[in-house]
Each structure stands twice: as structure tokens, then as C-alpha cells.
Write a structure and sequence with these properties.
single chain; alpha+beta; 3 domains; 8 helices
Length: about 375
């Protein structure tokens, strides 16, 4: 055996003994050091701002690195000479398949949030709920949950100071709102402000549909992305995804005669977002028709059911169910034709038999119920 072969054998033996240390040693030191660093951060409960994103990103990246390291070990073990059990082979194959997926799902939100660092998203929350978690030996965790003005449900991690401020304000005002600047994929809070209602920026960030008029006498209502101007065929709602119950689908409306006004029926429409609205459908023709051929002349929606959030339902001028206030309505629509204390405002076009809006408000003054009618009964 030549000298060259001896040198090769020595290098091979050395690599087989110490190769994993040379290859994975730096990775281990990086992970160990990063773990210590983020443990220190963890004890301070840094959950918000750029530091909060760094903490979240670091944790996710470390998990991703561990997953990739596991893949490398599994591949090396799979192709290592020697006898292997079926169980060992299947375990390594599972690691090779599962770990890259885990790395992808942990690291992906961090990468997707990077473009938002310069212009994070903003939402407004109502229905605030504060929660904390003191389990385990680690520091307490603090959370803010709420319904977004755009219809989504959010769950944000907070720092202790922001949590304490929010719970104190909420104890004095159960209708407290929050303005949250955040990164959308990791849901890291960059900035948080507690508000009694909407600020001026909300109108700019969440404009109504261009098809929604400002004048209440248009009798228009925006539901999700569609604008309906009453009276409107029921078929317009059905084309936009609203559904009639099986019980109501078979209803027929008799035609008009000389002895009574238009026949009508209250029905409830629902959609795939689990939202519902109550409408009155009229038959303005002389012959009997299926209810699906009728005309919607009245719509009623109650915010207390929490099926609509902010931008999902708006009335002329962009006023939002659950967010706009009595003062907002008075400023935009003027003095009402009728009012009941501070809870109801009614705007009529001409007289008591004419089309109208009735807008109701909760104790805090937020728009809580909408009733709009634009259909002559006879």
C-alpha cells in the first residue's frame, strides 16, 4: 500500500470521526448562542415593536435551522453504510419529508413580513378582550383580541405596559377601541393606541365603495363589497351570494288587487360568511309570483349579533355599523324628523307613510341597528 493511499485512509478515518463536529459544530454554537440571547429577551417579554419582530423572527429562524439540520442528519443516516431496520428507514424518510415543511411554515411569515417593515398594516379593533398566561416557569404572556374593522378576528401579543394600560382603560369604558399597527404575517404589533372611537386616519384607510352615495335619500346600503339602492330586486342579493332558507324558498306572493296593497313577507337572507339580514320582499305585480321574483323594499340589520364588522356594512356617507356614532350621523345627515331620547334617529323623505331610515344607537352612542325602507305599501 502506497503512501498516498495511507494518507487518504487517514483523512477518511478522521473525517468519519470528526466530520460531523466540523460540519455541525458552528451550527450548534450559533443555535446555542441564539437560544441564550432569545432566552434573555424572553425574560423581558419583548413582544412589540421592531424588537418584538426580531424576537419572533429569531425564534422562527432557529426552528427552521433545527429542522434543516434534522434533514441533514436523516439523509446522512439513510445513506450511511451498514444494516438498517425498516423502522429506522421510515423514521429518517419521515424526517426528510416533514422537517422541510416545518421549516417552510415557520420561516415563511418572517420573509413575507420583511416588505411591511417600512409600511406596516393598520387595523382598528372593537369587542376588545384582554388575556394573560402565567403558566410555566417563564414570564407572563399578554394578549389582545378583537374584531377588526375590516371583518377579521385578530389576536396580538402585547408587552406588559400596553396590557396594563388597556385593561385600566377598558375597565372605565367597555366600548374601548384600539388602533393597531402591525406586521400581517407574524401579527407582531409595531404600535398600539387605545381610542374612544375612530380617528381621522380611518376614513382614509378604509374608504367606502365609490358606488355608495353620500345622500341618505338615495336609500342605498353597502353590504360587504356590494351597494344596493332600495327598492331592489331580491335576485340582486341572490346573485351576490345571499341565500333563502329552504322554508322561505317555496313562498309565493299573491298579486295586488283593488282591495289591498302589495303583498309582502319578511324573510332572512344568509351568506357563506354566516352573516344574516332581515328583508321585506314585496310583490308589485298583479299576478302571483315566487318570492325570488319579488322586490326588496326594507332591510334591517342588528349589530348586536356581531355578524358584521365595520366596513362590511355601511350606509350613505360611509357610516359604519358598530363604529359610527350618533354625532357622526347628525353631522352628516342633519337633524332628524323624529328622535327618541338618544337611542333612535328617524329620517323621512316626506311624511309618515314615506320612505325612511331608523338608526338606533347603544348606550355608548355607537350605531347599533339599521332599518331602511323605500317601498310604498299600497
Amino acid at each position: 500500500m502506497g503512501k498516498g493511499e495511507n494518507d487518504f485512509d487517514k483523512r477518511y478515518i478522521f473525517w468519519m470521526k470528526f466530520g460531523p463536529i466540523v460540519l455541525f459544530g458552528p451550527i450548534f454554537l450559533f443555535i446555542f448562542g441564539a437560544a441564550i440571547f432569545f432566552t434573555i429577551l424572553n425574560t423581558k417579554v419583548i413582544a412589540m415593536g421592531n424588537a418584538g419582530f426580531i424576537r419572533t423572527a429569531g425564534f422562527r429562524i432557529i426552528i427552521g435551522i433545527l429542522a434543516i439540520a434534522t434533514v441533514i442528519f436523516c439523509v446522512r443516516g439513510l445513506f450511511k453504510p451498514g444494516k438498517k431496520s425498516i423502522k429506522g428507514i421510515l423514521g429518517r424518510i419521515s424526517g426528510i419529508v416533514i422537517c422541510p415543511l416545518a421549516a417552510f411554515f415557520f420561516v415563511r411569515p418572517v420573509i413575507l413580513d420583511i416588505p411591511y417593515l417600512d409600511h406596516p398594516k393598520i387595523t382598528y379593533l372593537d369587542g376588545l378582550k384582554f388575556d394573560n398566561d402565567y403558566t410555566g416557569d417563564g414570564p407572563a404572556r399578554y394578549y389582545l383580541r378583537g374584531r377588526g374593522i375590516d371583518g377579521g378576528t385578530h389576536n396580538f401579543s402585547l408587552g406588559e405596559g400596553a396590557y396594563d394600560e388597556g385593561t385600566e382603560l377598558w375597565s372605565e369604558n367597555y366600548e374601548l377601541r384600539a388602533k393597531v399597527t402591525y406586521l400581517p404575517y407574524t401579527e407582531t404589533v409595531i404600535a398600539l393606541q387605545y381610542l374612544p372611537g375612530l380617528d381621522e386616519e380611518a376614513e382614509y384607510l378604509f374608504p367606502p365603495s365609490a358606488n355608495l352615495p353620500d345622500d341618505w335619500e338615495s336609500f342605498s346600503i353597502q353590504i360587504n363589497d356590494n351597494v344596493y339602492s332600495l327598492p331592489v330586486p331580491l335576485s340582486d342579493f341572490l346573485k351576490n351570494g345571499w341565500m333563502i332558507s329552504d322554508e322561505d324558498a317555496g313562498l309565493q306572493l299573491p298579486g295586488r288587487d283593488d282591495y289591498k296593497g302589495y303583498d309582502s313577507s319578511w324573510i332572512t337572507l344568509t351568506n357563506t360568511k354566516e352573516q344574516s339580514i332581515d328583508v321585506i320582499v314585496y310583490n308589485t305585480q298583479e299576478q302571483t309570483i315566487d318570492i325570488t321574483q319579488g322586490i326588496v323594499g326594507r332591510v334591517s340589520v342588528i349589530y348586536g349579533n356581531y355578524e358584521f364588522a365595520g366596513t362590511e356594512l355601511r350606509i350613505p356617507g360611509g357610516l359604519m355599523l358598530g363604529w359610527s356614532t350618533r354625532d357622526d350621523v347628525l353631522q352628516l345627515y342633519g337633524m332628524p324628523d323624529e328622535s327618541y331620547e338618544t337611542r333612535n334617529l328617524t329620517y323621512r323623505k316626506e311624511d309618515v307613510t314615506s320612505p325612511y331610515w331608523t338608526l338606533s344607537f347603544n348606550e355608548a352612542g355607537f350605531l347599533d341597528k339599521i332599518m331602511v325602507k323605500n317601498q310604498i305599501d299600497d
